[in-house]
Amino acid sequence: RLQPHRLDRARMGGGADRTADLDAHDDRNEGLRRIDSKNFKALGLLEANKPNTTKTTTTSPPVYWGVLLLLLSKLSGCGHIVTTRLLLRLGYFTPANLAVLRNVVTVFFLGALLLLKSDLRKNLKHIAGEVRSNWRSVVPGAAGTFVLQTLVMQSLDLIPATNLAVLSLLSPPFLFVIAGFILKTERPTWVRFAGMVAAVAGAVVIIDPTGFEAGDAKATVGNLLCAGMALCYAIIVTVQKHLVASVPAAALQFTFTAYAFPFFVLLAACFGDLGSMALTAESAGGAAIVGVFASLDYYFAFASLKYVSTLLVGLSNSLLPLFVGIATYFVNGERLSWKDLVGAALILAGMVTVIAAKTEQVERAAGRGGGDDADGKALLELDELDRVSRESRAIPTEVP
Question: What Cα–Cα distance (Å) separates residue 105 from each residue in 79, 118, 184, 223?
């Protein structure tokens, strides 16, 4: 049956050929309307797949949650460092066997946290699957954890805790280079660089590096161990930034510690320190404090990576000299000098500068990988739609 407008054309005459041409033109127009309706979503897909080279300024609304977590992390780190140094000075432990006890406490503490938090307990199978699928990142994270903790323990047996706190400030420069120039996961900016320099300078002012006993061989070795510790910390934070989106902070730290624990036992056995522990109520309590504070230190730092950049996590180590200085003031009766106050002001200024700095990101849709067969077919149909549309506009539509 002829459609009404086609029946009218047949009655008007003009020849069968002319009527056939006009009918074909109507068929093409109706086909275009059907294709356009069918692929309405595909039109949006075409726009989404165009390379986007525009710069967008993004800010993280919950960034202050990350700052709070970093403050808690450094307070815990201060307790861990000061207590470790005290236990080693009193001769209760050697660095190797204290590391074993510390990690025993860490495994039990974080294991209890995973079981007590309902959201983590219900997703243990999923978390385990994520850990297995990301094993290439978990292995260097566990290796870095072993090396980092070993260097911390050994250095605190050689140099004061304040020296370690200052030398931990080498991690921000390492992170600035790794994230900004090697992996290129974060855009390095002059504002961030200036904030980092200000915070590092503040920490150096608080603890005068000229007070280091550079002529003492033991102090020199301890300082070198701390430099290696700062590099390991930068590597671990970079690995954690990649994993923290899929693996919760507590589960991530538990995994790193569990994988590294046999190596702590092996190292203590090689040094012959497994049987030399002076386990008393006082020493066992001190080891438990070290384990809990160390767990909270890394747990809060890992959790903050959801909200802040790796550079800010490394830069937060600038707070350690200030916190350690306050702790030694109460423990040893040391007074804060004008250098401590000036250094604290520089640290605060550097932290505020980095936090307030906006991160510019250039995102390109092409390079993210992507698209399935259905998307490809939709795009081909859109190309065909565009071609047919251009041809249809070239055909006259007037009826003689």
Answer: 15, 22, 36, 27
Q: Where are the alpha helices (DSSP H) in 278-372?
A: 281-304, 310-315, 319-332, 338-356
pLDDT tens-place string over residues 317-356: 878 888 887 887 776 555 656 766 677 677 767 767 766 6
Vertex 259, ends 257 and 263: CA angle to 5°? 90
Structure tokens at 314: 């490394």
Classify residue 80 as exposed, middle or buried by CB count within 10 Å of its CB (0-12, 13-18, 19+).
buried
Smallest CA-to-CA distance from 82 within 18, 175, 162 is with 162
Q: Are 360 and 215 in contact (CB under 8 A)?
A: no
Closest CA to 222 of 287, 159, 265: 159
Beta bridge partners of 361: 56
Read out DSSP for 53-120? --EEEE--TTHHHHHHHHHHHHHHHHHHHHHHHHHHHTTS--HHHHHHHHHHHHHHHHHHHHHHSHHH
Residue 101 has pLDDT above 90, yes or no: yes
Q: What would the pLDDT profile of 360-377 be if each residue is shown by its tens digit?
A: 433 333 333 344 444 445
Q: What are phi and psi of 362, to 5 degrees?
A: -105, 115
